[in-house]
Amino acid sequence: VYLKENIRKISKIQDYHLKNHICHCVRYHTAILQISKDLNDAFSVMMLIHITWTSFIISVLGFGIIMENNYWNMLRFIMHLGGWLLMLFLVSFYGQILMDKSSDISKEVYDSEWYRTLPKIRQHLVLILLRSQRPIALKAAQLNTMSLSTFLGVLYSAYTY
């Protein structure tokens, strides 16, 4: 959001301040990309384990709900299932927001009246534009991104078990 607001200000800044402003945006964008890489390096394997384990647990809990005759035990299974679904949904939802917001950066650069800037400034904007074409995403061991489609995929795979 901060980067989008700074990019939006490009058309309103004087030329002599514009280079510093663009350099700040490029540095900020680079820092965001590095943080994203570090986050994925640290947690991508855990996300894959989380997705796999959650799919298995959801299928077992669903089976338990179907087979249980005691309503109190069934309620326990339903509450447990709700907790697992909530955990997976929250990670997937915020992963989707991260992807959407990072994709919006390229739109902001394009809408920033870049054609009125100096050629050197355009080069910096092109760097941001090119890199922001690929959204930042939380990854599950480089196999999958944490998004709402992943959430639905896990539910589908749990259902098929």
From TrEMBL:
GO terms for cellular component: plasma membrane. Its main location: membrane. GO terms for biological process: signal transduction. The chain crosses the membrane at residues 42-65, 77-97. InterPro entries: 7tm6_olfct_rcpt. The keyword Transmembrane applies. GO terms for molecular function: odorant binding; olfactory receptor activity. The keyword Cytoplasm does not apply. Keywords: Cell membrane, Membrane, Olfaction, Receptor, Sensory transduction, Transducer, Transmembrane, Transmembrane helix. It is a multi-pass membrane protein. It is found in: Cell membrane. PANTHER family: ODORANT RECEPTOR, ODORANT RECEPTOR 19A-RELATED. This is Odorant receptor 30. It comes from Chrysomela lapponica (Leaf beetle).
